[in-house]
Description:
Elements: H1 14-23, E1 25-29, E2 32-38, E3 47-52, H2 61-78, H3 80-83, E4 90-96, H4 104-127
Parallel strand pairs: 3-4
Antiparallel strand pairs: 1-2, 2-4
Helix pairs in contact: 2-4
Amino acid sequence: MMHTFPRKEKLKSKKVFEDLFMDGKNISEFPIKLIYRNTNFKDGASIKVGVVAPKKKFRHAVDRNRIKRLLREAYRLNKALIFNNIEGNFAFLFLYLGKRQPTFDELDIAMKQLLAAFLKKESHESNN
Length: 128
């Protein structure tokens, strides 16, 4: 599978963002929290992803942008874990919870654990 993150996989809909915060399920693997929700997209994408870095903890936009770039990259490299193993369409929102600027390795490890936890939780729920 290609390690790409095309435009149609980016979460942009304000309504979907609001739905995620209202009734999305979440999993945390410090320093990342995943909020996700089963949903359908009109453009046929199976997963759409958004990333968030808190303005409260990171005042400077350059710091938030770096965190978001690292989160997107960690997701992009590990998304094959999910695409090959789930049924259904999901909206994902990755929130950065740490108080300091992360390294890529920290985020990469946390992302792998988070995606594994998501698969475990979802496969368990779909079997019930």
